[in-house]
Design brief:
single chain, 454 residues, alpha/beta, GMP Synthetase, Chain A, domain 3, six-stranded mixed β-sheet, six-stranded antiparallel β-sheet, 30% helix, globular
């Protein structure tokens, strides 16, 4: 947002009008004609019995598999040699007969994963995933509406109702990275939302952030764990109190939330943290209920669990949302520790319980002006020519970007990375780009996207 000339050269009141206008257009797309019916359906399905959920999953999987083999070139080529009669197969058991796919398969498949029978216009996007390598996907409006319906259900579990005030601290560039004084926030009146920059957090700015939150007094805060966690740690270390009176819950997502950080946030803000797990690929979702337990949402998708090590399981998901570009038996790469199969939550829902989510855990970059910046995958979004990448910081004044290049990496790729870093971090830190053959893994073989040794 702040990259546009009109926005950067407008007064705050005009910037807030521009934010509200853009938000209104986005909401119109996310909450299209089908949204209301979808939202009503999933507010019913959260109370279905295990048997009803299983029947629903079977029906969805049958439809998706038949549609894929009939309409999607990639699956047609993959499945037809298996000589399976998809009309007679019984799901979910039959799913094991189909091959697994991963990020590399999706990248290689390209447009052959798009259905020849599209469900209206397609909207493309990309994510850097867990390794800094961009992954492009397309989805239709129905998929966007259904995804938003599930997110709203999670927000209602956290205590939010339509029209309530909420705060947002999730990576939007609402003020330039070079701005040195508050306010680091803007009001989005279209959604009754206070939007706060996650790029200007520092010990000196923390009191202003907390004051702006208390004055707006949101019912729910949506934030990266690293962003709201920074404020919580500062509050606990200084003995500061949050003075808002309406806060019912904090919804975190996009980063792994450790149990230590969860306790810090809940202690500092005096409310429950509701952690949401999802991915850009939309093949699995895990929500947090009012009792603070993680639930695998079996009305969102069908998830298999591949045994890993130490009692952990890798998530393999088949999404129910997007018939225009379906992902079937997609390996997410993230690990979970499920609760015992016979354990039930006191909230009364039948969704399986998850004890622990092992996803992406990155460090935050430290800047010389005192800022702490987390969640930097934005630097790689939409950038071609990268197989994988990692950001490392060993000195306060410099970050190093290790890049495993693909054959399409060129000088324009390098310039885009430089520009993205300047846009998000400002001019006070040097950036070095080093081309390497591979990225070092941790001792347990995991990839870490950001490593800070400062």
């Amino acid at each position: 947002m702040s990259s546009s000339f009109a926005y950067r050269h407008s007064p705050i009141w005009a910037q807030e009008l521009l934010i509200s206008a853009k938000s209104s257009l986005r909401s119109t797309m996310r909450e299209g004609r089908a949204f209301g019916a979808m939202a009503a359906e999933i507010h019913k399905s959260e109370w279905w019995s295990e048997r009803r959920l299983r029947a629903f999953q079977s029906e969805k999987l049958q439809m998706i598999a038949q549609s894929a083999v009939s309409n999607v070139p990639y699956y047609r080529n993959k499945y037809r040699p298996l000589d399976l009669d998809f009309e007679k197969l019984e799901f979910p058991e039959a799913l094991a007969k189909l091959p697994l796919i991963g990020k590399a398969d999706v990248r290689a498949a390209g447009k052959s994963l798009i259905s020849e029978r599209k469900q209206g216009p397609l909207f493309s996007g990309s994510t850097s995933g867990t390794t800094g390598a961009p992954l492009g996907l397309s989805q239709d409006l129905a998929a966007i509406n259904r995804e938003n319906a599930f997110i709203w259900r999670q927000l209602t579990w956290a205590g939010l109702r339509r029209g309530d005030r909420r705060a947002w601290m999730r990576g939007d560039m609402i003020v330039p990275a070079t701005q040195e004084k508050p306010p680091y926030w803007r009001v989005n009146r279209a959604e009754n939302m206070l939007m706060l920059s996650s790029y200007h957090l520092s010990e000196s700015a923390a009191p202003s952030y907390l004051d702006s939150l208390a004055r707006f007094d949101p019912v729910v805060i949506q934030a990266y764990p690293s962003s709201i966690g920074f404020l919580a740690t500062w509050m606990l270390s200084t003995g500061s109190r949050y003075r808002g009176i309406s806060l019912r819950g904090i919804v975190t997502s996009s980063e792994t939330l450790s149990e230590v950080r969860r306790r810090e946030i809940e202690s500092a803000f005096g409310c429950r943290v509701f952690d949401w797990y999802g991915q850009f690929e939309r093949v699995a979702a895990i929500g947090t209920c009012e009792q603070g337990r993680h639930h695998l949402l079996s009305d969102y998708s069908f998830v298999e669990m591949l045994p890993a090590e130490d009692g952990l399981f890798e998530l393999v998901g088949t999404g129910f949302n997007n018939l225009s570009m379906p992902l079937i038996r997609y390996r997410c790469g993230d690990l979970v520790r499920p609760a015992p199969a016979n354990e039930r939550c006191s909230c009364g829902r039948s969704f399986p319980l998850i004890e622990r989510i092992i996803g992406r855990v990155d460090d935050s970059i430290k800047l010389s002006d005192g800022r702490s910046v987390g969640r930097l995958d934005h630097l790689f979004k939409g950038v071609e020519g990268i197989i994988e990448a990692q950001i490392r910081q060993d000195r306060l004044d410099t970050i190093v970007m290790l890049v495993v290049p693909s054959p399409t990496f060129n000088e324009r790729t390098r310039e885009t990375l430089q520009s993205n870093a300047r846009y998000r971090l400002g001019d006070g830190i040097a950036l070095e780009i080093q081309l390497v053959d591979s990225i070092p893994r941790t001792r347990n073989g995991k990839f870490k996207g950001v490593v800070c040794n400062v």
